[in-house]
Amino acid sequence: MGTAFVSAFFFHGLHETVHQTAFRSKWANIAVAHVLGFLCLRPARHYWYYHLDHHRYTGNPERDSELQSGSFLDLAIDGPVQYLFYLSGIPFWIDAVCSLIRHAFGYCTESYLCYKMRACRQVSREARIYLCLYVWIAVLALKYTIVATTLLRNWVWPALLAQPILRFYLLAEHRGRKQSTLVYENTRTTYTNWFLRRLAWCMPYHMEHHAWPSVPFYKLKDANHLLVQAAHEASAERGYDVLEQGEAYPELKESSRLGYIGFNLRFWKHLRPDRGVRKGLGR
Fold it and tell me: Partner of 247 for a Cys bridge, out of 199, 210, 237, 252, CB 3.0 to 4.6 A?
């Protein structure tokens, strides 16, 4: 279980290297991004294009890649059943496998790819390489028992168990915030303990990350201090908390200070048949 918990945050390493802020060397970022992308079943170049539109158009339901309808990855949650289904990681695996196969055959239908021929070629080539490597590993596993045992113990089972942990974490980043183009309304910073912040590459400071995407992970805490200071000054001037006005539902007020367990408990409590918290997360 410990391996699964740690591997859940491989994704954050992928995210940071895609931003080119993990290492000084561009090629080190690219190499590590592909290693982690391969382990997470998130091809690095595809994720770069997906994530670029998420940053460019955060909160815009027509352009934000995490708000596009029909995506299993960014599933709408309208009740407890959808919430549990999302946390299971099943939608992620369906989307990841189907996307990899589609891209390998040259079908790039996503809004952030379909009108970009160069991007489509890059993503298709990447998918073919990844798919060939996955098939080669699968053949080795079928041929050699020791390979199969090692893969299941150290990669497959931890990856399956990691997804619910990762989904539980990712839910807090945008879900329940307003579909607005203002960063303090569409993104949430979640305050948590030192260990989880380090494990997640300081991404709990998510509002700060969206405000300044080129700031490396180890400077986000400093960015948080600047943002909070500016927000307090603006709140005093306007007479309300500008960082809390982005919560779309009263039940989620001050949820950023409850940590991830506290947020999910409030989110679960909010899920009633007559009130669905619509989309706003992804990855």
Answer: 252
Give 273: exposed, middle or buried? Use CB within 10 Å, 0-12, 13-18, 19+. Answer: exposed
Structure token pair of residue 108: 């790039």
- In 3D space, the residue among 283, 217, 232 whose CA is nearest the CA of residue 17 turns out to be 217
Number of domains composing the chain: 2
pTM higher than 0.70, yes or no?
yes
Token pair in block for residue 10: 């491989």
Let me know whether 160 and 201 are in one domain: no
Statement to judge: residues 161 and 220 lie in one domain: no
Residue type, 31: A
pLDDT value, residue 279: 46
Beta bridge partners of 275: 272
Q: Counting beta carbons within 10 angstroms of the beta carbon of residue 44, is it exposed (0 to 12), middle (13 to 18) or buried (19 or more)? A: buried
Q: What is the pLDDT of residues 131-144, one digit of tens each?
A: 999 999 999 999 99
